[in-house]
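We now fix the convention by which a protein and its fold are recorded. Here is one such record, which you should read through line by line:

>
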Amino acid sequence: MLGLNHSSVSEFILIGFSPFPHLQLMFFLLFLLMYLFTLLGNLLILTTIWGERSLHTPMYLFLCALSISEILYTFAIVPRMLADLLSTHRSIAFVACASQMYFSFTFGFTHSFLLTVMGYDRYVAICHPLRYNVLMSPRGCACLVAWSWAGGSVMGLVVTMAIFHLPFCGPNEVHHLGCHALPLLKLACGNNVSTVALGVGLVCITALLGCCLLILLSYASIIATILRMPSAEGRQKAFSTCASHLTVVVVHYGFASVIYLKSKGPQSLEGDTLMGVTYTVLTPFLSPIIFSLRNKELKSAMKRTVLSRLLLQSS
């Protein structure tokens, strides 16, 4: 499907956790618990929004789409990572590696695009409240979600095809916990590796910075509008509706900027592995916590959902 290049390498060896031989069982238990919490947290958000009619609004529709992309993103990477922590043979087939890269980039960039859409939703709600129902109609919201998923798919396809069209002739040890772009580019051979690396880097950084810039512009307008509100209660209510989204944006783009904008100097395997854990396990783990704790409406609805389930089971 991806038109992969025929290379002498038929599989890759993932050696991301090899510097921590005595900690792998502890890492397995820790990451397993964080993965299960991520799944349960996002599923609880989806169940709560689905069951609460008061939450059937554009903001929570986008949150549902964000939770789905987060579930799929972690599913593309974490189960394989957990299996490798318990195995001594950490090989992954060439096509499986390409598939993991495609899905991780697809869902990762979909996540970024959805965060941008959520920022636009808050901008319209606070800066243009009278036009909110027109601009954020059900059809318009569905289009924004669809374009976010389509954009993520295109990004995943472009990056994966660019890298896996390169020949891989020599060593096959990937110095990472998964099939990530930068470690694989270091293993590629041929005359145009540097050109592809530059192109992939520019595409990823441009997409991330573009999303980040749109979110910053949205919040600049939001803050300017809030500061002009006459009542302190109105300002506080407006800020509270943005708090959870803004916190997730800071966490998401904070870790992403470290990954893509870091120095090109020599990096240790331990540092690369721990950095990979932050955006593979830690960021998805924090996201449902932030949304459930910082959003009062969602928090109270989740409490009602959990209590109703417990009462049904007890009866």
In short: Residues 24-260+278-297 form a domain with the Rhopdopsin 7-helix transmembrane proteins fold (CATH 1.20.1070.10). DSSP finds ten helices and three strands in the chain.
